[in-house]
Write a structure and sequence with these properties.
single chain, 413 residues, alpha+beta, Beta-lactamase, 2 domains, seven-stranded antiparallel beta sheet, three-stranded antiparallel beta sheet, 11 helices
Length: 413
């Protein structure tokens, strides 16, 4: 048996019990094409890698590019876990505190104070939403927002805004030089983030917000000493210490061949092309490909390695044991959230980790079809990467697949 540190991303492993493997193969085959064309799983149980495998095709129409264990997938919101981990290393280093106001690091966030409310935007239709009557005439002081609010998604910021429209024109294909620099795109994105109205009171309730993690990413880069270079901060504070070799923003621009990357959706509304080797998320793409909420690509092994690092409280994370523990504790009322992590729902049928994972489990999903779930009681880590947005976003079945695969693995191991 191999530990995750002994496993290379490309190395196939299958040490599942025969009956569990047979059930898994049936599950993967039954979801290929109907839910996703490509998938990769890396599973660590009690410190040993029991699975590192792949299914499907990167070009499902021609079927000349089979998915490999080291195929790079667009992590979407699983990116947030790397941003959060980097931030918590800075907390452990004494550079910032969880309950500090974010304006201490991002003073521009307070340049309009008090800030008005509005109804926000629907992330799918992009339509502006009406202002709730109870917020008419009210304002909020942005200096009330703390880093804990960002991490727990209780900042009162909108879940989504069309930041990409403020950041500049649609980028050219990623194999071509973009006439708008990444620095300029990010500067314009930040200028918009400083000024957006709130949609709720800080600390009031959970509103899952990409905007909050975009701001957290900028704070990470500034606290690290390299403003606007979140990729450098994450590499220095997370991926390099853990020895992760496939975790990267803008992989095509870093020399990764397109044939090693799982494509996602055909964008008919903005880029007018198949999204392949560039981040699927419009706001991350429009802002230059590097953001705290989305943008990272990785192979399944390296996503599992991050999970194993959290499970084992790996010293290479450079996060104090008390802070690692606090991050996995409930920070909110109602929807169960830790610091950046989703905590397992106690309600049957409501968690993408299925019902067999324990209530101590914590994880996160990504819109493209990715996820990482960790169960401390079972000593189980599951990195499940797919490109379920390939045939189009918001198609049914991804949630059910996630539940089924985690339940199968938890019961079978």
């Amino acid at each position: 048996m191999l530990t995750i540190d002994q496993l290379s991303p490309a190395q196939p492993v299958n040490q599942l019990p025969p009956d569990t493997d047979a059930r898994l193969q049936d599950l993967m085959q039954s979801n290929l094409d109907s839910i996703f064309p490509a998938a990769a799983l890396c599973v660590v149980c009690r410190g040993e890698v029991v699975l590192n495998s792949a299914w499907g095709w990167l070009d499902p129409d021609r079927r000349t590019l089979p998915t490999q264990p080291d195929t790079w997938f667009d992590l979407a919101s699983v990116t947030k876990l790397f941003t959060v981990t980097a931030f918590l290393t800075l907390v452990s280093a004494g550079k910032v505190r969880l309950d500090d106001a974010i304006v201490g690091v991002l003073p521009e966030f307070g340049r309009i104070s008090p800030r008005p409310f509005d109804g926000g935007q629907d992330p799918h239709s992009k339509e502006r939403l009406p202002l709730p009557v109870e917020l008419v005439g009210k304002t909020v002081d942005p200096a009330r927002v703390t880093f804990r609010h960002l991490l727990a998604h209780t900042s009162g910021l909108a879940p989504w805004r069309d930041v990409y429209n403020a950041a500049g024109p649609a980028p050219v294909p990623p194999v071509e030089p973009d006439p708008v620099s990444r620095a300029e795109r990010w500067s314009k994105a930040l200028a918009a983030l400083w000024d957006y109205p709130f949609v709720g009171e800080p600390g009031e309730r959970v509103r899952y917000s990409d905007l909050g993690l975009m701001l957290l990413g900028e704070a990470v880069s500034r606290l690290h000493g390299m403003p606007g270079e979140l990729d450098t901060a994450i590499r220095s504070r997370v991926t390099a210490p853990l020895g992760l070799t496939t975790v990267m923003y803008n992989p095509l621009q870093q020399g990764v061949a397109r044939e090693r990357i799982a494509p996602t959706e055909y964008d008919t509304t903005w880029r007018q092309r198949r999204v392949w080797g560039e981040v699927h998320d419009e706001n991350a793409c429009g802002a230059g490909g590097v953001a705290g909420h989305a943008g990272l690509f990785a192979a399944a092994r390296d996503v599992a390695a991050l999970g194993q690092g959290w499970l084992a409280e790996d010293r290479r994370l450079n996060i104090s044991p008390d802070l690692l523990c606090e991050a996995r504790q409930e920070q909110t009322n109602g929807e169960r959230r830790g610091l950046g992590w989703v905590l397992k729902s106690p309600q049957p049928g409501e968690s993408s980790a299925g019902d067999a994972f324990s209530l101590a489990a914590f994880g996160h999903t990504g819109f493209t079809g990715t996820s990482l779930w960790i169960d401390p009681e079972r000593q189980l880590v599951v990195a499940a990467l797919t490109n379920s947005v390939y045939p189009g976003r918001l198609r049914p079945g991804t949630f059910e697949f996630r539940r089924d695969v985690h339940t199968l693995l938890a019961e079978g191991l």
